[in-house]
Amino acid sequence: MFDVVKRLLKHSIVYAIATVLNRAVSIIMLPIYTRYLSKSEYGALELFLVTSSVIMFVLQLGMGSALFRSVIYRQSVNRRVLTSTAHYFLVVFSLISTLVLITFAAPISKMLLGTVQYTFLLRLLFVGDFFLIFAVIPMAVLRIDERSGLFALIAGANFIIGIALNVLFLIVLRKGLYGVILAMTLNAAAFALIYSFVILKDLLFTFSRTELADMLGYGLPLVPASIFVLLINMADRYFIRYFMGLDHVAVYGAAARISMIISLIVNAFQMAWPAVLFSIAKEPEGPHVFARLFNYFNALLLFFSLALAMFAHDLLAIIATNNYVGAAPMVSLLVLSSIFFGINYFTSIGIQVEKKTLYYPLLIGVAAIFNIVICIVGIPIWGLWGAGIAKLISFTFLGVSICFVSLKYYTIPFQFRKIALAYAIAIAGYLAGMLADSSTLAIPIKLLIIGLFVVSLFLVGLVDLSHIRHMKKSMLPYFSRTNS
Fold first, then answer.
1. Among 420, 239, 428, which Cα is nearest to 343's?
2. pTM over 0.85
3. 8, 9, 13, 205: which sits with the fewest CB atoms below 10 Å from its CB?
4. How many other β-carbons are positioned within 10 Å of the β-carbon of residue 439?
5. What φ, ψ does residue 242 adopt, rounded to 5°?
6. For the chain, how big is the Rg over CA atoms in Å?
7. Do 70 and 222 meet the contact criterion of CB atoms below 8 Å apart?
8. Which residues contact 277 (CB under 8 A, 6 or more apart)?
9. How far is CA 21 from the centre of its chain?
10. Per-position DSSP letters for 286-322, written without gaps between them
């Protein structure tokens, strides 16, 4: 287990840095967005980002995940043929799709934002999404090879250039919302060239329809599943825009950006996980390794979520402005939702190993229906709380149902009682922290609560001190080599 943890931790840390850098532009730029864009402009930007995410999930066709499975889990496959087939197909498919989207940009703008005035910006966004597709297969190849250092280096360059372009067009040139979208598109175009160079040595002038069919058989069911996930994750902004207006989208979006810190941890784990998952699954001790890792996975997410939810008001006041602090209570619901979303990734082991990916669109589709119905009913009644409740219920259902189905195909002795007790303690700690808000000692009290929660993780047995000592001892040689 400790060898697995060491390997997973090594790459997860690097991927965490890379993932944070890739997505941190929108978080780091939040103070600038909230000061240089009006509330309605920032609300529109949130919808642009949501729309871009939906398009990207569709255009990828699940090919990155499919390539992972084909290279790592299948035997006797020609990797370069697989890589070439996947990359060429995605580029051509995305080019055709982008031309269609550009053609219908005006009605799409009318449908999503209630006006055609954003047509040009949508077209610019679609072009940027096309360039982003060039990164899909190269990123998968880097992760398969566990070249996390190069992955992080490219992500760092992407981050620096992204920030620079945003500052140039938004602060220096004062181009407003147009400047933000232009910066995103130019950045995507530049890195399309870089990723093309990275993957060049892995490409052949060949194309296999047989391998394409196999990869699409695995990847295509992930497309509707990904869209349904985005509906749960992002559709609330469209409903908030429809029922409450762009200003409220901006407030909700600010809370979502703060809670994205938990999503970044989940994403970092998700990126390192596939390369390790299939290797562990083959081993006799695999189920017990998965169970132990799941305990630490929950402990880590609960710790950061509790800290983030407790200090959400202060973070919003600092990062955004006082106009956005009203969304602070929403952060607690959003971070808890992110945890259950992460649980879905971890507990889907049986579904992935046995290639039962058809369950994804089915279960996530049901969760998406829950989300849409609760948003339609709840937002007019409870406002932003309706959106947060809808997301929490949907992701809770998703995490539980995926786990239940997956265990039918690959049995893992998860310690659910210990995990449930840790969640109960975290929720109680959060409520106690909120009661302390009116006290002059609010910050020390909250820090004490967080410290007590860490102690409780050991007391309930979710974290074992002997395992940590063993893990530390086993990892010392690695860090010694790294520092020498």
1. 420
2. no
3. 205
4. 11
5. -70, -45
6. 22
7. no
8. 349, 352, 353
9. 13
10. HHHHHHHHHHHHHHHHHHHHHHHHHTHHHHHHHHS-G
Q: Which residue is listed with tokens 């979520």?
A: 305
DSSP state of 74: S
Please, what is the end-to-end C-alpha distance for the chain in angstroms?
Answer: 26
Structure tokens at 117: 């005035």
Contact (CB, 8 A) for 266 and 23: no
* Amino acid letter, 372: I
Residue for token pair 């530049």 = 190
State pLDDT tens for residues 201-219: 888 888 888 888 888 887 7
Entry field: residues in the chain: 484
The tens digit of pLDDT for each residue in 93-129 reads: 999 999 999 999 999 999 888 889 999 999 999 999 9
Low-confidence ranges of the chain (pLDDT < 70): 1-24, 72-76, 271-272, 274-275, 466-484
H or E segment to which residue 71 belongs: helix 63-72
What contacts 203, CB < 8 A, 6 or more positions away? 80, 83, 84, 87
Distance CA 367, CA 337 (A): 12
Instruction: Report DSSP letters for 198-257, one per residue.
Output: HHGGG--S---HHHHHHHHHHHTTHHHHHHHHHHHHHHHHHHHHHHT-HHHHHHHHHHHH
